[in-house]
Design a protein that fits this description.
Strand content: 15-25%
Number of strands: 19
Radius of gyration: 33 Å
Strand order of the largest sheet: 4-3-5-6
Largest sheet: 4 strands, antiparallel
Order of helices and strands: HHHEEEEHEEEEEEEEEEHHEEEHEEHHHH
Number of helices: 11
Shape: elongated
């Protein structure tokens, strides 16, 4: 009866009020959500001014410093002479980053800021570059669109109308790519791969926002982006592919040439002559069928070894494969022994040797009397060249991959840093191989 009619009317009014909030373009998403929650819980929707009056007693009017010793006003993010009053919650913070670090249920809308608090004279007032009461300039740079102040004169800052935010310049060094939706270095204008809104994505490594980040970001050849710091971390960990699409992030031609040479020096046993592998190239997306090799599979389309196996056919049994590799290993050991005897134990280095980095154990070969005898004196080691060692290694059947295998197996545990396997580590590994370790 009548109670049901009253309840229906109440629900109708509730739906109407919710729809009005949804259609109110002056409200941020956070404000709309909060007002709708108030309605659903039986409370009336407060106006923005009423909400702000509710938190007036919570305003933090203390003076904040970027550098308290030198009395430089601001926060850990920016030097500035004021606090901003967040339109979303009515609280005072020195900057938008301070707001988002301290408020967990919403993010600030920087463009909606209307008030500021001068930390020179403690006056709450409409936002602007100068204090309307004491006349102090609150930011050497001020953007009235972003409501952004800063006294950091070491940076050239500009406002990008297309991005809608301020960025570190100079502006003439950057252009706005409308498809990528971000500012990019002018040096790659017309020479980069565009991905729709790629600049508005999160960094695939640290998962933090790229678009509004204060950190510089790196545009990869594939079109994806990540923070420059995160990109360098990947390189130091010897990861050279994009975390999103697995395409190569560097020009790998030199490394692919080394792979060609390694495979040439180490042909597969005849037992694998009918073994074929279906691959997909991560770099050019070509699908191919190629001969199986345990070192890697080269894309016939672009020459990359950045490939993944989808199917392998004609693989011999485990017993046949083990016996085949055992036979090959015996043949190579016999070849190395014969070559070492012919050369009198002489070896050279892949790179000019830095004697300070060499350990004594790599400079000796075990003799029949179980005492170490020097291969080279320090003076001889200093004069070794790349070409000399490569010639001796190749003649002894010791291709670059054999050196690489020792490196990745962890036997060279005392090398510091993230040197690629074809770098300085080779000089140590070459000596290990000649010793027959």
């Amino acid at each position: 009866g009548k109670l049901n009619e009253m309840e229906d009317e109440r629900q109708r009014q509730l739906r109407k009020a919710i729809q009005e909030i949804k259609n109110d373009t002056s409200l941020s998403m956070q404000e709309k959500s909060r007002k709708m929650q108030s309605l659903m819980s039986g409370r009336s929707a407060l106006s923005s001014s009423e909400e702000k009056r509710e938190v007036t007693e919570e305003l933090d009017t203390t003076i904040s410093y970027k550098n308290e010793t030198d009395k430089v006003l601001g926060c850990k993010h920016y030097p500035r002479g004021c606090k901003i009053r967040a339109f979303c919650c009515g609280r005072l913070f020195v900057c938008r980053l301070c707001h988002d670090e301290n408020i967990s249920d919403h993010h600030i809308d920087r463009h909606a800021t209307k008030e500021m608090f001068c930390m020179h004279c403690s006056t709450l007032q409409p936002i602007g570059q100068k204090c309307g009461k004491c006349g102090e300039t609150l930011g050497a740079y001020y953007c009235d669109v972003c409501k952004f102040h800063t006294n950091d004169t070491t940076k050239v800052i500009y406002h990008c109308d297309d991005c809608g935010i301020c960025r570190v310049g100079p502006q003439e060094n950057y252009f706005h790519c409308k498809q990528c939706a971000g500012c990019l270095p002018i040096s790659i204008k017309g020479n980069h791969k565009c991905i729709e809104n790629s600049s508005k994505s999160d960094c695939p490594v640290c998962k933090k926002d790229l678009f509004s980040s204060r950190e510089p970001f790196q545009l990869l050849p594939c079109g994806h982006s990540m923070h420059s710091r995160c990109y360098n971390q990947l390189l130091r960990s010897q990861s050279y592919t994009c975390p999103l699409c697995n395409k190569s992030t560097l020009d790998m031609k030199e490394h692919w040439n080394e792979m060609d040479h390694s495979i040439q020096l180490q042909p597969m046993p005849s037992e694998f002559s009918d073994t074929r592998t279906n691959i997909l190239c991560n770099d050019c997306n070509t699908k191919s069928e190629v001969a199986f090799h345990f070192l890697g599979h080269k894309c016939p389309g672009c020459g990359s070894y950045n490939t993944v196996i989808s199917k392998t056919t004609g693989m011999p049994s485990n017993e046949v494969a083990i016996n085949a590799f055992a036979r090959i290993q015996q043949e190579r050991e016999a070849q190395r022994a014969a070559q070492a005897q012919q050369n009198g134990g002489a070896v050279d280095n892949v790179e000019n040797v830095d004697n300070a980095d060499l350990e004594d154990e790599f400079l000796f070969e075990e003799g029949e009397d179980e005492e170490d005898t020097p291969l080279y004196t320090e003076e001889e080691l200093e004069g070794m060249t790349v070409a000399q060692l490569k010639e001796i290694l190749q003649s002894a059947g010791l291709g670059p991959f054999l050196i690489y295998r020792w490196d990745v197996s962890g036997m060279l545990s005392k090398r510091e840093g993230g040197d690629p396997p074809w770098g300085r580590a080779c000089q140590f590994l070459a000596f290990r191989h000649i010793r027959g370790v």
